[in-house]
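User: Predict the complex with zinc ion.
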Amino acid sequence: MYLSVVFNLPLNQSFTYRTMEGETGLLLGKRVEVYLGNRRTTGFVIAESESLDEGCAIDPKNIKEIRRIIDKEAVFGPDHIDLARWISSFYLCSVGEALSAIIPSGRRETGGVPVGIDDSDFSPVRHALSEEQIAAIDTITGESRPKSVYLWGVTGSGKTEVFLQAAEHILNQGKDILYLVPEIALTHQVVEAVVNRFGTQAAVLHSGLSGSKKLGEWMRILRGDARIVIGARSAVFAPVKNLGLIIIDEEHDGSYKSGTTPRYHARTVAMRRATVTGATLVMGSATPSLEAWYQIRSGALVSCRLTKRLAGGAEPRLSVVDLSNSNGPLSPELIEAIRTAKQSGRQTILFLNRRGFTHFYRCKTCGYELMCKNCSVPLTLHRSISVMKCHYCGWQVPPPGSCPSCGSLDTAYAGFGTEFVEEEVRKTFPDYTIVRIDTDSMSEAGKDGVKDTIEHFREGTTDILLGTQMVAKGLNFPGVRLVGIALADTGLHMPDFRAAERTFSLITQVAGRAGRFFPDGEVIIQTWNPKSPAIEYARRGDIEGFYTHELSQRAELGFPPFSRLLRLVFRSKDKKIAEESASAAAALLQPLLGEQDILLGPSECPLSIISGNFRHQLILKGEKLSTLIAAVRSFRDGYKSPANLYTEIDVDPQSLL
Ligand code: ADP
Ligand code: ZN
Ligand code: ZN
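Assistant: Here is the predicted structure with zinc ion placed in the model:
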């Protein structure tokens, strides 16, 4: 038997091997260990045949035998190979790289992993649905359902219940379901709701599972034992048998885009799977991505609206506080509101999207700034462990006693983080209980510690919950009266055209944690830029107003959704190689582009050095992605990459940093 094998390497071809003596075949869909050159490596068997293709130039005597078969049962099938080929052509990676993203990397499969079932806010009791919810479920599951539906509902309007009941309908129609959520650690309430409601029919795929546990769940789905799969980005590949519905919760979330090759977007892959299988795609959010909103507005995407909070809450009262009038991260308004919340027996969430103590160290005498040795970013002070740390590569040094450059003692720290805010809050409210949740506190407390912390807060035993993104999303806390955004502008000045959209969406999502169960919710937004449109529209709760404004900005600059982008990053330890490769590539690409297409760059990336790699980029902008992809494909196929250069190809990039 001859096998076609592909690898998790940027090689745009398959390799032929022969099976071991006495092995009778049926290796399609299994992983094997083989020698590629003189390196032993894992490959995926994507075809097998009795004889070599006619016209095959290889002498059968030179074909190597495989060394070992890894899987007892096939772990993927023809559908996955088709999907991998599609990813390979759309995202410009190899078929092997695509398969490697699709299939869990675990080895031995173990049994399924039942998830701990806790009491949660989503009890098995079903609410009497609101009219808007009923209409949405009808649209999603009805006879003449559209191919895709957008469930656009304000925070707290009961989107989850719509998803769950729609899923139930589809399961009853004999079809299977994928339910995507941003990051499992942040959304365990939804995961629990799914597991509570669907029991052993449900499978959970999340990044916290070991490879072999993941593979165990994967095999359970492949055998048809689990019919509703909930998970983060890569769950979009789950091998359900008879796909009927794909749900993408919090569609706007950035974590749906992969940061490594293939740089796929789960929404795009979901659309592809829905098209191939005839399944319905439902996306939902309170703050749709601008791309989605543009499609809703133009009528290309059917939308259902949920306009009311159902659990007794109401839209909170929002106010903006200009931080330039206060010293320190707690304005008098915020202090007063925290006190009021406590006095009325209620709780506060404080949000800041920046961990650590302070973010800049500067010498006032010579202007020296302490930067990472490996990256072009300033170091963050983590005072509790007394280090200055790089958030990109992890490099760290002890905090300097005096300026490392001129020895002056006149130095200053600036830019507060969660650790700093925690200290200020403890000083201001010595007898309140306060907990902090961010990736630093999580690595100390562990995942279960964080879950306990969240449970305690829900039960009302904690006064203030302070944290980053982790407190921003998907959580339902009955006792919360106040949400304080310690600094709303952390992402506002990023050199990225989506900075305003992200800021707006984050404020709206965080604000949505207030007033879910009582009508007296309050939100205080602290900022250095009270006039910026993202902040002003968020304060007014004017979602459509913001989108209309932002859309006109995008139209003016010709950025998505008015164009498509494709980004190439050339990175190398050698500055010259990175720089020259970008210029050379620009010269090669220019003639391959369509007349209307635009090539931006070459230029240094805003994050010009990461982990000692110099980064230069080209951004291609055009009306049609297909012409950009075709240009980059023919560039890539003829490209002789210098040694020590790595080229990242990012189709529909989400970040331009
Ligand atoms: P969203 O995902 O839209 O932000 P959730 O799905 O978290 O909103 O729902 C908010 C709250 O409303 C939850 O506590 C949920 O149990 C409750 N809820 C959902 N549907 C109903 C309903 N029909 N009647 C009463 N409460 C409901
Ligand atoms: Zn100095
Ligand atoms: Zn670094």
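The longest strand covers residues 598-610.
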